Amino acid sequence: MGRTQLRLAVWALAILTSFAIFGEHTALASGNNPKVEGGGWFPTPNPDARNGTAKANFGITGKFDKNGMTEGNFEYHNETSGLKAHGKLTVLAFHTVCDPALSTCTDACGFFAPQLIGKPAATVGGHCDNASCSFSMDVIDGGDPGKFNDYVCNVMVTGPAKNNTVSTDADPAEPLGGGNIKIKNN
Amino acid sequence: MKRITFFLIAFLAIGGSAYAVTSATTAAEGIYPPGTSFNGVPITGLNIGSGSLVAADGTAEGHLGIELLGPTILGNQQIISVEATVSGGSRAAANVTTVSGTCTIDMGNGTPPLTGVPFVATITTDSQNQGTVGLVLGATVLPAATINDGSMTIADLAD
Questions:
Q1: Do residues A24 and A114 share a domain?
Q2: Tens-digit pLDDT profile for chain A (186 aa)?
Q3: Closest-CA residue in chain A for B18?
Q4: Pairing state of beta strands B41-42 and B45-55?
Protein backbone atom coordinates (compact mmCIF):
# COMPACT_ATOMS: atom_id res chain seq x y z
CA MET A 1 0.00 0.00 0.00
CA GLY A 2 1.47 3.31 -1.06
CA ARG A 3 1.65 6.46 1.00
CA THR A 4 -1.27 8.05 -0.86
CA GLN A 5 -3.43 4.98 -0.44
CA LEU A 6 -2.62 4.84 3.25
CA ARG A 7 -3.55 8.49 3.61
CA LEU A 8 -6.87 7.90 1.86
CA ALA A 9 -7.56 4.89 4.06
CA VAL A 10 -7.01 6.91 7.25
CA TRP A 11 -9.23 9.70 5.98
CA ALA A 12 -11.94 7.18 5.13
CA LEU A 13 -11.68 5.75 8.64
CA ALA A 14 -12.02 9.25 10.13
CA ILE A 15 -15.06 10.04 8.01
CA LEU A 16 -16.74 6.71 8.79
CA THR A 17 -16.08 7.27 12.48
CA SER A 18 -17.75 10.67 12.22
CA PHE A 19 -20.78 9.22 10.47
CA ALA A 20 -21.05 6.58 13.18
CA ILE A 21 -21.03 9.28 15.83
CA PHE A 22 -23.05 11.99 14.13
CA GLY A 23 -25.30 9.68 12.08
CA GLU A 24 -29.09 9.52 12.12
CA HIS A 25 -29.38 8.98 15.83
CA THR A 26 -28.97 11.85 18.24
CA ALA A 27 -27.56 11.94 21.71
CA LEU A 28 -31.07 11.88 23.20
CA ALA A 29 -32.67 9.47 20.77
CA SER A 30 -29.93 6.88 20.63
CA GLY A 31 -30.02 3.73 22.68
CA ASN A 32 -32.74 2.46 24.91
CA ASN A 33 -31.63 4.09 28.11
CA PRO A 34 -34.55 4.77 30.40
CA LYS A 35 -35.13 8.38 31.33
CA VAL A 36 -37.68 10.70 32.84
CA GLU A 37 -38.28 14.37 32.29
CA GLY A 38 -41.09 16.79 32.91
CA GLY A 39 -42.62 19.32 35.20
CA GLY A 40 -45.69 21.26 36.06
CA TRP A 41 -47.78 21.59 39.18
CA PHE A 42 -50.16 19.63 41.35
CA PRO A 43 -52.54 20.59 44.15
CA THR A 44 -51.40 19.52 47.59
CA PRO A 45 -53.13 19.91 50.97
CA ASN A 46 -52.01 22.93 52.94
CA PRO A 47 -53.95 24.35 55.90
CA ASP A 48 -52.50 27.80 55.29
CA ALA A 49 -53.86 28.01 51.75
CA ARG A 50 -57.08 29.94 51.23
CA ASN A 51 -59.04 26.88 50.10
CA GLY A 52 -56.89 24.35 51.96
CA THR A 53 -54.96 23.43 48.84
CA ALA A 54 -51.64 24.81 47.70
CA LYS A 55 -50.00 24.57 44.31
CA ALA A 56 -46.69 22.73 44.19
CA ASN A 57 -44.51 23.35 41.16
CA PHE A 58 -41.92 20.75 40.27
CA GLY A 59 -39.40 19.90 37.58
CA ILE A 60 -37.31 16.76 37.13
CA THR A 61 -34.81 15.20 34.77
CA GLY A 62 -33.35 11.76 35.33
CA LYS A 63 -31.33 9.16 33.47
CA PHE A 64 -28.35 6.88 33.90
CA ASP A 65 -24.91 7.63 32.57
CA LYS A 66 -22.95 5.07 30.58
CA ASN A 67 -21.64 3.61 33.82
CA GLY A 68 -25.14 3.14 35.16
CA MET A 69 -24.90 5.99 37.65
CA THR A 70 -27.96 8.11 38.38
CA GLU A 71 -27.87 11.65 37.07
CA GLY A 72 -30.43 14.40 36.85
CA ASN A 73 -31.93 17.22 38.85
CA PHE A 74 -35.05 18.04 40.80
CA GLU A 75 -36.83 21.26 41.71
CA TYR A 76 -39.82 21.66 44.03
CA HIS A 77 -41.66 24.76 45.22
CA ASN A 78 -44.84 25.08 47.26
CA GLU A 79 -46.39 28.44 46.42
CA THR A 80 -48.16 28.79 49.77
CA SER A 81 -45.64 27.58 52.34
CA GLY A 82 -42.63 28.62 50.28
CA LEU A 83 -41.12 25.15 50.77
CA LYS A 84 -38.46 24.70 48.15
CA ALA A 85 -36.04 21.95 47.35
CA HIS A 86 -33.56 21.57 44.54
CA GLY A 87 -30.60 19.35 43.96
CA LYS A 88 -29.21 16.37 42.13
CA LEU A 89 -31.07 13.12 41.80
CA THR A 90 -29.47 10.30 43.73
CA VAL A 91 -32.42 7.93 43.57
CA LEU A 92 -33.86 6.85 40.24
CA ALA A 93 -35.78 3.63 39.70
CA PHE A 94 -38.14 2.83 36.86
CA HIS A 95 -41.12 0.56 37.30
CA THR A 96 -44.70 0.00 36.27
CA VAL A 97 -47.64 0.89 38.48
CA CYS A 98 -48.85 -2.45 39.80
CA ASP A 99 -52.25 -3.75 40.84
CA PRO A 100 -52.54 -3.45 44.63
CA ALA A 101 -54.74 -6.56 44.58
CA LEU A 102 -51.67 -8.61 43.71
CA SER A 103 -49.69 -9.91 46.65
CA THR A 104 -46.47 -9.03 44.87
CA CYS A 105 -47.44 -5.37 44.53
CA THR A 106 -45.75 -3.06 46.98
CA ASP A 107 -46.53 0.12 45.08
CA ALA A 108 -49.23 2.25 46.72
CA CYS A 109 -49.86 4.41 43.67
CA GLY A 110 -52.29 1.96 42.05
CA PHE A 111 -54.40 1.97 45.21
CA PHE A 112 -54.98 5.72 45.00
CA ALA A 113 -55.33 5.87 41.21
CA PRO A 114 -56.45 2.49 39.79
CA GLN A 115 -56.56 3.83 36.23
CA LEU A 116 -52.78 4.07 36.32
CA ILE A 117 -52.13 0.35 36.82
CA GLY A 118 -49.74 -0.76 34.09
CA LYS A 119 -48.50 2.77 33.36
CA PRO A 120 -44.78 3.63 33.43
CA ALA A 121 -43.52 5.21 36.62
CA ALA A 122 -40.29 6.37 38.17
CA THR A 123 -39.21 6.80 41.75
CA VAL A 124 -37.04 9.89 42.05
CA GLY A 125 -35.28 11.35 45.05
CA GLY A 126 -32.36 13.27 46.34
CA HIS A 127 -31.09 15.88 48.74
CA CYS A 128 -30.15 19.52 48.44
CA ASP A 129 -26.47 20.07 47.77
CA ASN A 130 -26.18 21.63 51.24
CA ALA A 131 -28.29 18.85 52.81
CA SER A 132 -30.99 21.35 53.82
CA CYS A 133 -33.75 19.45 52.03
CA SER A 134 -34.88 16.01 50.99
CA PHE A 135 -37.07 15.11 48.06
CA SER A 136 -38.81 11.90 47.07
CA MET A 137 -41.78 11.06 44.91
CA ASP A 138 -43.07 8.67 42.32
CA VAL A 139 -44.00 10.23 38.99
CA ILE A 140 -46.38 8.42 36.65
CA ASP A 141 -46.76 8.93 32.92
CA GLY A 142 -50.47 8.38 32.43
CA GLY A 143 -50.62 9.73 28.87
CA ASP A 144 -51.32 13.00 27.12
CA PRO A 145 -52.15 15.61 28.04
CA GLY A 146 -50.37 15.44 31.36
CA LYS A 147 -53.07 17.46 33.08
CA PHE A 148 -55.33 15.05 35.02
CA ASN A 149 -53.62 12.01 33.38
CA ASP A 150 -50.12 12.12 34.87
CA TYR A 151 -49.74 11.70 38.62
CA VAL A 152 -47.31 12.22 41.44
CA CYS A 153 -47.44 9.66 44.23
CA ASN A 154 -45.74 9.04 47.59
CA VAL A 155 -44.67 12.69 47.74
CA MET A 156 -42.35 13.47 50.64
CA VAL A 157 -40.47 16.76 50.54
CA THR A 158 -38.84 18.53 53.48
CA GLY A 159 -36.93 21.76 53.32
CA PRO A 160 -36.70 25.45 54.09
CA ALA A 161 -39.88 27.47 53.83
CA LYS A 162 -41.09 31.01 54.49
CA ASN A 163 -40.14 32.80 57.71
CA ASN A 164 -37.07 30.63 58.25
CA THR A 165 -39.20 27.60 59.01
CA VAL A 166 -38.77 24.01 57.90
CA SER A 167 -41.79 22.53 56.21
CA THR A 168 -42.81 19.10 54.94
CA ASP A 169 -45.17 18.21 52.12
CA ALA A 170 -46.51 14.66 52.25
CA ASP A 171 -49.11 13.58 49.74
CA PRO A 172 -50.18 10.03 48.82
CA ALA A 173 -51.19 10.82 45.25
CA GLU A 174 -52.31 13.75 43.11
CA PRO A 175 -53.04 14.27 39.43
CA LEU A 176 -51.17 17.03 37.68
CA GLY A 177 -53.09 20.28 37.45
CA GLY A 178 -50.73 21.36 34.69
CA GLY A 179 -47.59 20.16 32.99
CA ASN A 180 -46.51 16.76 31.71
CA ILE A 181 -44.29 13.83 32.68
CA LYS A 182 -42.56 11.69 30.09
CA ILE A 183 -41.03 8.36 31.04
CA LYS A 184 -39.12 6.15 28.67
CA ASN A 185 -38.56 2.80 30.27
CA ASN A 186 -37.48 0.13 27.83
CA MET B 1 0.54 11.26 8.74
CA LYS B 2 0.77 13.44 11.87
CA ARG B 3 -1.76 15.83 10.41
CA ILE B 4 -4.18 13.01 9.63
CA THR B 5 -3.78 11.57 13.10
CA PHE B 6 -4.48 15.01 14.56
CA PHE B 7 -7.70 15.35 12.55
CA LEU B 8 -8.79 11.84 13.50
CA ILE B 9 -8.34 12.63 17.18
CA ALA B 10 -10.16 15.93 16.69
CA PHE B 11 -13.08 14.15 15.03
CA LEU B 12 -13.32 11.75 17.90
CA ALA B 13 -13.09 14.53 20.48
CA ILE B 14 -15.84 16.52 18.79
CA GLY B 15 -17.95 13.42 18.47
CA GLY B 16 -17.55 12.69 22.14
CA SER B 17 -18.56 16.20 23.14
CA ALA B 18 -21.70 15.97 21.02
CA TYR B 19 -23.07 13.49 23.50
CA ALA B 20 -23.01 15.94 26.43
CA VAL B 21 -26.49 16.67 27.71
CA THR B 22 -27.79 19.70 29.58
CA SER B 23 -30.45 19.35 32.25
CA ALA B 24 -32.70 22.38 32.76
CA THR B 25 -35.18 22.18 35.61
CA THR B 26 -37.42 24.80 37.17
CA ALA B 27 -40.01 25.14 39.92
CA ALA B 28 -40.38 28.84 40.43
CA GLU B 29 -42.42 32.02 40.53
CA GLY B 30 -41.56 35.23 38.74
CA ILE B 31 -42.78 38.74 38.15
CA TYR B 32 -43.17 40.74 34.94
CA PRO B 33 -42.39 44.41 34.50
CA PRO B 34 -45.40 46.71 34.86
CA GLY B 35 -47.36 47.06 31.65
CA THR B 36 -46.71 43.52 30.41
CA SER B 37 -49.59 41.90 28.56
CA PHE B 38 -50.29 38.82 26.47
CA ASN B 39 -53.05 38.77 23.84
CA GLY B 40 -54.40 41.95 25.38
CA VAL B 41 -54.51 40.54 28.90
CA PRO B 42 -52.30 42.29 31.44
CA ILE B 43 -50.07 39.84 33.26
CA THR B 44 -48.11 40.41 36.43
CA GLY B 45 -46.18 37.19 36.90
CA LEU B 46 -45.68 33.55 36.08
CA ASN B 47 -45.41 30.16 37.71
CA ILE B 48 -43.26 27.57 36.00
CA GLY B 49 -42.46 23.90 36.52
CA SER B 50 -40.31 22.22 33.93
CA GLY B 51 -37.76 19.54 33.15
CA SER B 52 -35.84 19.37 29.89
CA LEU B 53 -32.85 17.51 28.52
CA VAL B 54 -30.92 19.34 25.79
CA ALA B 55 -28.28 17.59 23.70
CA ALA B 56 -25.32 19.35 22.14
CA ASP B 57 -26.65 18.45 18.68
CA GLY B 58 -29.70 20.68 19.22
CA THR B 59 -32.21 17.95 19.97
CA ALA B 60 -34.14 18.24 23.19
CA GLU B 61 -36.95 16.64 25.13
CA GLY B 62 -39.06 17.80 28.01
CA HIS B 63 -42.02 19.84 29.06
CA LEU B 64 -42.78 23.23 30.54
CA GLY B 65 -45.94 23.89 32.51
CA ILE B 66 -46.40 27.65 32.77
CA GLU B 67 -49.10 29.84 34.23
CA LEU B 68 -49.24 33.51 33.30
CA LEU B 69 -51.00 35.41 36.06
CA GLY B 70 -53.63 37.78 34.78
CA PRO B 71 -55.88 40.28 36.50
CA THR B 72 -58.15 39.45 39.41
CA ILE B 73 -61.74 40.47 38.74
CA LEU B 74 -64.39 40.02 41.43
CA GLY B 75 -62.07 37.69 43.30
CA ASN B 76 -61.32 35.47 40.32
CA GLN B 77 -57.87 35.60 38.78
CA GLN B 78 -57.48 34.98 35.06
CA ILE B 79 -54.73 32.42 34.63
CA ILE B 80 -53.31 31.74 31.17
CA SER B 81 -52.04 28.16 31.00
CA VAL B 82 -49.18 27.30 28.65
CA GLU B 83 -48.36 23.62 28.11
CA ALA B 84 -45.14 23.48 26.12
CA THR B 85 -43.52 20.40 24.60
CA VAL B 86 -39.80 20.75 23.97
CA SER B 87 -38.27 19.49 20.72
CA GLY B 88 -35.15 21.62 20.33
CA GLY B 89 -32.70 23.52 22.43
CA SER B 90 -29.28 24.97 22.92
CA ARG B 91 -26.86 26.02 25.64
CA ALA B 92 -25.72 29.58 25.00
CA ALA B 93 -23.66 29.78 28.18
CA ALA B 94 -23.08 27.87 31.38
CA ASN B 95 -26.12 29.57 32.90
CA VAL B 96 -28.30 30.06 29.80
CA THR B 97 -30.40 27.40 28.09
CA THR B 98 -32.94 27.97 25.35
CA VAL B 99 -35.62 25.41 24.57
CA SER B 100 -38.20 25.52 21.81
CA GLY B 101 -41.10 23.58 20.39
CA THR B 102 -44.85 23.96 20.30
CA CYS B 103 -47.35 24.71 23.01
CA THR B 104 -51.03 24.85 23.83
CA ILE B 105 -52.29 28.10 25.31
CA ASP B 106 -55.49 28.26 27.32
CA MET B 107 -56.38 31.89 27.90
CA GLY B 108 -58.47 30.94 30.92
CA ASN B 109 -61.43 32.97 29.77
CA GLY B 110 -63.56 30.22 28.30
CA THR B 111 -62.27 30.52 24.75
CA PRO B 112 -60.95 27.33 23.08
CA PRO B 113 -57.25 26.65 23.70
CA LEU B 114 -54.79 27.67 21.00
CA THR B 115 -52.84 24.61 19.85
CA GLY B 116 -49.60 24.17 17.94
CA VAL B 117 -48.26 27.58 18.90
CA PRO B 118 -44.47 27.81 18.48
CA PHE B 119 -42.59 28.87 21.58
CA VAL B 120 -39.09 29.69 22.71
CA ALA B 121 -38.14 29.79 26.38
CA THR B 122 -34.82 31.16 27.57
CA ILE B 123 -33.86 30.13 31.09
CA THR B 124 -31.08 32.15 32.68
CA THR B 125 -29.92 31.26 36.16
CA ASP B 126 -27.98 33.30 38.69
CA SER B 127 -25.85 32.34 41.66
CA GLN B 128 -28.97 32.02 43.82
CA ASN B 129 -30.51 29.42 41.50
CA GLN B 130 -33.04 31.98 40.37
CA GLY B 131 -32.64 34.40 37.46
CA THR B 132 -35.01 35.09 34.57
CA VAL B 133 -37.34 33.32 32.18
CA GLY B 134 -37.88 34.80 28.73
CA LEU B 135 -40.80 33.59 26.63
CA VAL B 136 -41.72 33.98 23.00
CA LEU B 137 -45.22 32.65 22.40
CA GLY B 138 -46.14 32.70 18.74
CA ALA B 139 -45.40 36.21 17.56
CA THR B 140 -45.45 37.69 21.05
CA VAL B 141 -42.16 38.40 22.74
CA LEU B 142 -42.70 38.81 26.47
CA PRO B 143 -40.15 40.67 28.55
CA ALA B 144 -38.07 38.47 30.83
CA ALA B 145 -39.80 37.48 34.03
CA THR B 146 -37.62 37.88 37.10
CA ILE B 147 -37.75 34.82 39.32
CA ASN B 148 -38.38 35.80 42.93
CA ASP B 149 -39.18 32.45 44.57
CA GLY B 150 -38.46 28.81 43.96
CA SER B 151 -35.43 27.67 42.01
CA MET B 152 -34.01 26.83 38.60
CA THR B 153 -30.99 24.72 37.69
CA ILE B 154 -28.94 24.30 34.53
CA ALA B 155 -26.50 21.43 34.83
CA ASP B 156 -24.27 19.18 32.74
CA LEU B 157 -25.09 15.52 32.52
CA ALA B 158 -22.69 12.95 31.20
CA ASP B 159 -23.55 10.67 28.32
A1: no
A2: 677 777 777 776 766 565 555 544 456 765 578 999 999 999 998 877 778 889 999 999 999 998 999 999 999 999 999 999 999 999 999 999 998 888 888 777 888 888 999 999 999 999 998 889 999 999 999 999 999 999 999 999 999 999 889 999 999 999 999 999 999 986
A3: A27
A4: unpaired
In a domain, B3, yes or no: no
Closest residue of chain A to B158, computed from CA coordinates: A65
Q: What is the pTM of this model?
A: 0.86
| Contact call for B49 and A59, based on CB within 8 A | yes
**A108, A58: one domain:** yes
Q: What is the Cα–Cα distance from A137 to A134, expressed in whole angstroms? A: 10
Among chain A residues, the shortest Cα distance to B20 is held by A27
Does residue B67 contact residue B44 with C-beta atoms inside 8 Å?
A: no
Count of domains for chain B: 1
Please count the residue pairs, one from chain A and one from chain B, whose beta carbons lie less than 8 angstroms apart: 183
Domain residues for the domain of A67 are 32-184
Q: Could you tell me which of A121, A103, A130 has the C-alpha nearest to residue A181?
A: A121
Number of domains chain A is built from:
2
Contact B65 A37 (CB under 8 A): no
Q: Closest Cα of chain B to A86: distance in Å?
A: 7
